[in-house]
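Pilot study result, target chain (259 residues):
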Amino acid sequence: MKIATFNVNSIRRRVGALCQWLDDAAPDVVLLQELKAQAEQVPILEIEAKGYRVELVGQKAYNGVAIVSRHPITVIHRALPGDTADEHARYIEADIAMPGGPVRVASIYLPNGNPAPGDKYDYKLRFLNRLYAHARELLELEIPVVLGGDYNVVPADIDVHDPVGTADDALCRPETRQAYRRIVNLGYTEAYRTLHPNRIEYSFWDYQAGAWQKNDGWRIDHLLLSPQAADRLLACEIDRDPRGRPEASDHTPVWCQLR
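Predicted structure:
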């Protein structure tokens, strides 16, 4: 069972690259972020032609999340609980009918939060607090849960190319890291860092200043596993290959394998 997260940075522009990666990597489930399209604009037919089902929450020009799966999808939430006034398309949660039993997954696109401090950063912290509350409720179900997505959080200095220069960035600030750790400390396992405690590797490289060529990256795309999912964890890797292709997203997929 292979579950991946991938911020595609415009699904209409990257659908060809996404479909190529689906062929190459053959994931069971992909959690997509930053679709930048309304639901009717998403090229679902191209994805379905690869043997996948699609459920999504779209938004014009911004945000947007989706769950792509080889197996049946039952949507539970199309927004993060806790604030009915928040209309940003940043969260979708579903049960996936896997052959070995259902797995609850969520595709999450957290706010960037810059400039910080400011209103955008306050929204980011509120979103993280809501995610904490919901993640705690999910643990009470005692089922395999995978919370994947672009968290826009650098968990530690090892996860960014320039810890000193980025210390005041909304992705690296102490308040951000503390809010993220609160979620993990509920009992979740961060799949990549658990299996690779000392490896320096990134999942995002800005388009500016030759960041990709210089490997000036950030590790901000994460897969958090409930204890029932973590007990089945076999592998977790960052697939750098799509980032080096023409017309690439500025993110690259992160995947985990569960038995």
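One observation from the pilot: The mean pLDDT is 98. A full batch analysis is planned for the follow-on phase.
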